[in-house]
Every structure is written in C-alpha cells, then in structure tokens.
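Summary for the funding panel

The consortium committed to producing paired sequence-structure records for every protein in the target list. Below we show the first two records in order, beginning with the earlier of the two.
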Amino acid sequence: MPVLVASDLDRTLIYSAAALALTMPDARAPRLLCVEVHESRPLSYLTETAGHLLTELGDAAVFVPTTTRTRKQYQRINLPGPPPGYAICANGGHLLVDGVSDPEWHARVTARLADECAPLTEVREHLMNTADPLWVRKHRIAEDLFAYLVVERELLPEDWVKELAVWAENRGWTVSVQGRKVYAVPKPLTKSAAMREVARRTGADLTLAAGDSLLDADLLLAADRGWRPGHGELADAQWTAPAITPLPERGVLAGERILREFLREVRGGA
C-alpha cells in the first residue's frame, strides 16, 4: 500500500531569503536551490540536499504539496523530483489532479462553506473597516474562498489580531499570522479534508504530514505521524500532540530535516 506524504510548503519545505535562518558562519552555509521565481526574481529556496531528498521521496511515496497558496501562486513553484499527481491549494479549497482542479471537490467545499460559516463579503468588509492603512500594504481575496492582508509586521498591533480572532471565531472563521500575512480562513476550509480525499483515492494506509502554522494543525492531527519545525506559529505556541514530533531545527535546515524524517518513515513502513 502506498504511503501518502502531505507537506506544507512555505516555511516548512521551501523558504524565502528572509526566512532561511542561516545562523552558521558563511563558509558553512548550505548550498541552496531556487525553486520559485516571481517577476524575474528568485523567491523561494531549499537546500541542494533537500532537493535530492525530495526527489527520493517523490519516487518512494505519494507526495502531495499542501498549501494555502492560490493555484496561480503554487504553479510558480518548480520542485525537484517527479511532478506530483495531486496537490492541495487554497488551504484545501482546490484539489489538483495532474495540475488541474477537480471541479466536484471544489463544489463540495464551497457548498459546505455556504452552509457553515459567515460569507466572505462580511469578513472582507470587516477587514477593510478595521485594518489601519498605516500598517496594511495590501488587501487580498484568494480564490473567492478566504481573505488575507499583507502587513508591516513590526507595526501590526497584537491586540488587533486578538480582537480579529475573537470576531472571526464567532462567525466560523479562523485567523493565522504567517510572516507578513494575516489570514482569515473559514473553519471548514481545511487541508486535512483534502488529504483524506487523496488518501481515499490512492488507497494509502499510512499518512505523514508536516507544517509550521496554525492552518497546518488540522493536517498534522489528521495524519498518522506529523512533524513541525522549530519556528512558526505552532512552535511559538509550543503546540504538540501525541503523534507529532517537534523538531529543533529552524529555517531552511528544518525543511531538510523534515524530508529526512519523511523518508525514514516511508522506508520503515515499506
């Protein structure tokens, strides 16, 4: 039976220059591989070693990139290894099969959102009315499913985030702060539901997952085994669970460690 590996991407497997956390002496820094270019600029990296590990993982398991990115943002990424047959985008709102969104899955998700939580228009209006232009750089709607702000993180008031989280909770939404982005996401929009669907379709009897943010918690809990890096929202909250392994590594070396853990488990399971 195949092993399914569902992993978050940003700040879990791939890293912007600002998130690399290269704290070692320059001469000992790992060689990096660029895996995303946007507007002719290199944007995201993993170590060369991680690139080789990811290629091995793609050959040994059903590797499913799992991201809150929109489909357009995801398709900028060029990961090493065989092209994934499945990918989860928009936090579970789109299930890509050979690069194309499955319309039946998307219809199921949108129907559930309409039944279980406040509409996106209400959330967007609240963000427009309460977020201060002093620290907001962009308002964005992703795939007509959720909203996010691009902010100046050092100016972002913690009290505003806490108040937003309470307001959103009462309307069936959740809030996550990741780097310079503040996400407002409907609670039924989950990576875990899409992962379970891929497991059903592939017949996987073992599921592995990794992630760093609060939006990854449901994915980690739904997997048979999960890992989180030593940075990010989950690490900051010291979040863990019985089948979750917190890793000490931070930055791009955490991505390399996560891939080693995936491969060890896949080979052990096999």
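The next record, for a separate protein in the list, is shown here:
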Amino acid sequence: MTMLSSAPGGASVRAPAGPAPSATTTKRRTQGGTVLALPALAWYLIFMVGPLVAIFVIAALHWPGMLQPVSFAGAANVRAVLDDPVFWDAVSNTAVQLAVALPLMIAGAYMLGYYVAQKPPGHRVLRYLLFVPGLISTPAKAMVFYAVLSPDGLLNGALDKVGLGSMTDAWLASPSTALASLIVLDVWSGIGFTAVLFAARLGSVPDEIGEAAQLDGAGHWRAMWRIHFPVIRDFVGVVTMLQFLWTLFGSAQNVLLLTQGGPGSSSTTLSFLVYQKAFIAADLGYSQTVGVVLFLVGLAGLLTIRRVFRQNY
C-alpha cells in the first residue's frame, strides 16, 4: 500500500505505507485483551452468577436457620409459598408500588429534567438541590418521614392548624395509608437524582432541534413530549430499568425502618418478605423461593421496559 505526498516542486510522489499488521500480531492482541479480561470475568462468575445459582439451590432445600441441618425439600417450598396469603399480599403490594411509583417518578423527573435543561435562572444551584435526597442516608430519610407522618408529627399538626383535624391519621400504622406513605418516600427519594440524569442527557440534544420546533410554533409541552422525548427514548428506557430494579429490590429497607411490613401485611413487599423469612423467621428455603419469584419478576420487567422504550426508527 502506498500514500501520496507533496514534493518540493508541487508534484505528488508515492511514499510507501507502513506494513500491514500480520495475522500473528492481531492474534497476540486478541489474546492479550482476553487475559486482561479474566479477572473481571472471574469476579463476575463468583459474585454474580454464583449467588444467582445459590438462590435456586437453596429454594429447593429445607433449611431452618444458618447453623441448622439441611435437607432436600423439592417442591415443598413452592407449595408453602403459593399457599401463604402473606405472599399474595406481598405480590399485590409490590405490583401497586411499581404501578404507582414508577410512572410518577419517571414522568415527574423527565419534566423536571427538561425544565433544568432549558437553563433557567439558578439552574446550576437547582441541579445541586435535586441531588440532596440522594445524599441523605436511608435511615435519615426514614427518620424524616417518621417525623412527618407519625401520629403527633408535622403533617397531622399542620392539618389541625388549618382546621382539618378530622383528616388526621396514623399514616404509617393504618392499613389504608401505610403502603401509600412508602410510595411517597420512594418517589421523593428518586425523582431528584433521576431528573439530574435526564437534564444531562437532554443537554446533549442539539440546539437545532429545539430551535426548529420553536420555528414551527411548538410550545414547551409539545417540544418536551413530541420532539425531545423520542430523541432520548432509549435513555428513558435505561433510567426506567434502573428505577424499576431499585424500587423492586430496594423497598425492603424502607419497609423495615418504617412499618415492619404492617399493620398485618398491608405494607409487606416481596423484597421485605425475603428478608423477613430469612432473618426473622429463619426459613431460608421459603425466603429464597420468594427470591426466585423476585428474580423472575425483575427479569420480566426489564425485558418489558426494554421493549416498550426501544427506538422505533
């Protein structure tokens, strides 16, 4: 292979190009990349695939505690789970939590992120303020919500002050409001951080797209949903997956800190049921059978979200 170069008189001369990489060199580079990837692959197999396999193995065992003898249970754990009304309450509560919290969080965060991406006055400070819930530890957030929602908390005090004392309630101890209180905590915790992610992605959209929409007479609402949303549709899907997983698997900590799954099982979720059966009831087989259900729900949810938000062009 040769290359053209300019000679002093303006004439073009051909200069020999460097030798093409041989098959041996290419093979060595490939082998070197494989060797460098081995530590990460080993880490993945041990700490990701290993626990996943362990879930399915333990789900088939009768294991009444970490230091107790283990025996094979077969499908007995599956029958115990399916016959347990608490499990079905947890399924219902988890479904309600995802159906309410996820759309509110994603839609609200997208609109808030779009507003920040327009760079209004003070938008830099607003970006930092939106991060505040993410900087607060989970126990601290639970304490804040307990102070607001307890029977003598801020919410009931405010209702009394404005003459709405009849609406006061023990929000975290009432079967009709305990789950709703946890959903409010989920939305408040996740909407700010998600909005910052959306603002960062919307900031990379070419300005010409928004300018063209304005010239066509599109208002902010139409530009937000009909112009910018399709452009970042795949990114919305990724963020939705992350929040779906966080809500599905991370709800146990809020339930543990605020309601303990009660009253009764009115706020018990699948992830909290896994914890409760493993560490309180010491029934590891039941716990990991619910863990298998949780894994399958998560996998089905990820595939559904990916299909809904995939680009259609």
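Regarding this second record: Strands lie at 2-6, 12-16, 61-62, 71-72. The CA atoms of residues 278 and 284 lie 5 Å apart.
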